[in-house]
């Protein structure tokens, strides 16, 4: 299984502190989806960067790029237009608890 990383780029600085109710609702759906992926064993780790720029980062497994693109393209934050995504191949070379 290949590893992938995707970045969620929010539409403005200080996004986490200035979300509208609709943005909060959609980001809640995003979090629930990540929790399901974690429970299913697909998600390796996820979280936001802190500070004025709130880029989201998720590392997950998918068999190929097409499957990885489906995962990112179906993210509620992307489908709603509240974020843009950037997908890249990734290799967890060192991982605490594994190495």
Write the layout of secondary structure elements.
Blueprint: E1 2-9, H1 15-18, H2 21-40, E2 43-48, E3 56-62, H3 65-73, H4 76-79, E4 84-90
Antiparallel strand pairs: 1-3, 1-4, 2-3
Major sheet details: 4 strands, antiparallel
CATH topology (fold) name:
Alpha-Beta Plaits
What is the helix/strand order? EHHEEHHE
CATH 4th-level superfamily: Dimeric alpha+beta barrel
Rough outline: globular
- Walk across the major sheet and give the strand order: 2-3-1-4
Radius of gyration: 14 Å
First-residue to last-residue Cα separation = 18 Å
Mean pLDDT: 95
Oligomer state of the chains in this structure: single chain
Helix content: 25-40%
Low-confidence stretches: none
Determine and state the CATH class.
Alpha Beta
CATH architecture: 2-Layer Sandwich
Q: What structural class do you assign from the helix and strand content?
A: alpha+beta
* Total domain units: 1
Task: Please tally the helical runs, counting DSSP H or I stretches of 4 or more residues.
Answer: 4
Explain what this protein looks like in three dimensions:
With 99 residues, the protein is an alpha+beta fold. The protein has one domain: Dimeric alpha+beta barrel (Alpha-Beta Plaits, 2-Layer Sandwich), CATH 3.30.70. The chain has four helices and four strands; from the N terminus they run βααββααβ. It has helices spanning 15-18, 21-40, 65-73, 76-79; strands at residues 2-9, 43-48, 56-62, 84-90. A hairpin with a 7-residue loop joins β2 (43-48) and β3. The two termini are 18 Å apart. The relative contact order is 0.28. The mean pLDDT is 95.
